[in-house]
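Annotated sample (chain length 311).
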Amino acid sequence: MHNQVIFLLGPTATGKTALACTLSECFQLDIVSVDSALVYRDMNIGTAKPDAATLHRYPHRLIDLITPEEIYSAAEFRQDALAAIAASHAAGRTPILVGGTMMYVNALLIGLSTLPTANPSIRKVIEAKAAESGWPSLHLQLAKVDPVTAARLSPNDSQRIQRALEVYEITGVAMSSLQTRDQSAAAIPYQATLLALLPSQREVLHARIATRFETMINDGLLEELSMLREQYQLHVDMPSMRCVGYRQAWQCLEGSINEKQFRDEGVIATRQLAKRQMTWLRSMSNVEVFDCLDAAVETKLATHIQALLAK
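Output written by the structure step:
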């Protein structure tokens, strides 16, 4: 199985982590996180990070890698993920890559395109436009020149909107087109099996999201962010603070929204994230879909993986 890699993908709140832990116990699987929020140390509640007892019993690779002050790129993820896969194979086990950060999945499956380096002067112009009209306005501008990339981004994802517009300004070509050109050259050097958890009833997933966010609040999400702001030099536009839940918590601590708005906007933002994740997953080919709401989903996944490993 030294050429086999299993992906267990899906939107937030579909139960990926719990299923991966069970499957890793049934088979000789190593869990590798594919989650851009779990890379941050001390960000535990708002990222739904597995607790210490779970991580002791079911070790996860690629979590707690950096502080909330630092930046972790898709290129760094690809490098670290390939190293984790190689280590798993060397130990005679099979890696199962679990998460919903589809940009990371894309970077690993098809590689990273050769994009131009940052241009400070162009970035300043883009930032000035954003300060004047807001990032949602620039997101609409991006949709006109690169609709594929825009469809995958939140209207407030300032970092990625800026980068996509910058690439277009430098090259005159949509970033999605440049990425497509290089796909065949840097595909993952393993046999990848893609399994996806998707809900048969979206309203049930929405209810799960609301319940989970309420649990995060009750577990101390606001208190966690307050501690992070004391421990680290943070500002609201850092990638770590753009994670769903933390941005809304920041606004609540600053007094720009009240606690009810914090709850409502946090749930809405999480739903929007789940929608983008599902849109991306449904656009992918060669994905075996399982209903995360099916009571027998664990058994069906285990049967599928057992047959895969037996080949």
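Annotation: DSSP finds 14 helices and six strands in the chain.
Annotation: The chain has a mean pLDDT of 93.
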